[in-house]
Amino acid sequence: MNKLIISTATAVVAILLLYNGSLHAQTEKGRFVIGAGSTLSFISGNSTWGYKGENNIGKETFSKFNIHPFAGYFVMDNLNVAVALSYTSSKNTVTPTGEDKTENKTSEFYIGPAVTYYIPVTEKLKAYAIVGGGSALANTGAGDDNRYNGFYFYGAPGLSYFIGRNVALEFQLNYEKYHYSNKAESDYKWKSQQFAPVLGFSVFL
Predict the structure, then answer these.
(1) Burial code of 71-110, b = ≥16 C-beta within 10 A, e = fewer?
(2) pLDDT, tens only, 142-153
(3) Where would a tag sit more exposed on the chain, N or C end, judged by fewer CB atoms within 10 A?
């Protein structure tokens, strides 16, 4: 199974690299872009949580793995509007005030719009800035008391390096902020913010 996955991934990358069509500038109006990125467990950060008006019930440290596919359309030259999805799996170490620390795992899912503006630097290199946000869901276990609804926001500068006419490797440094409310008890809040380097690729169609 692993050999099949690796072979399939290799074939997809080879096809993308060979795709060269007679297209114009990658980021001109009317073009589409699809892609994906991942933090590859590079995220680290901290958060505080507690009831409304109380932010010192406990502290949390975490490490995360994230993958986020997206698809977008250039509404004008160099300006792309996209729909982005994101799935995050994280390991959390929680230390309630005055108590021993515990470890747990969290799954998070996000969906929302993103807007990207590209600035050509050289023939193969483009700088860009991206902002996005939307709905967020999180699950830390079974039952509504372990489920959270909320919203998120992120912004980032980035670089796209074109390894083919229409395929780019990308790097961006995200600033991300999340606000959650517990599904069973809405006054119970969960807030988080972090910096995250993201590696990915885009295909311009």
Answers:
(1) ebebeeebebebebebebebebebeeeeeeeeeeebebeb
(2) 777 778 888 888
(3) N
Q: How confident is the model at residue 17, as a pLDDT?
A: 43
pLDDT one-digit tens code per residue, 50-99: 666 655 555 666 667 778 888 999 999 899 999 988 888 877 676 666 66
C-alpha distances out from residue 163 to 76, 198, 201, Å: 24, 18, 10
Beta strands at 125-139 and 58-76: parallel, antiparallel or unpaired: unpaired
Expressed in percent and rounded to 5, the helix, strand and coil fractions of the chain are 10, 65, 25
pLDDT in tens, 91-133: 767 666 666 666 777 788 889 999 999 998 988 899 999 999 8
Contacts of residue 94, defined as CB under 8 A and 6 or more positions apart, other chains included, come to 58, 59, 60, 101, 102, 103, 104
Average pLDDT (163-182) is 86
* Residue corresponding to tokens 């620390």: 101
> To which H or E segment does residue 14 belong?
helix 2-18
How far apart, in whole angstroms, are the C-alpha atoms of residue 113 and residue 84? 6
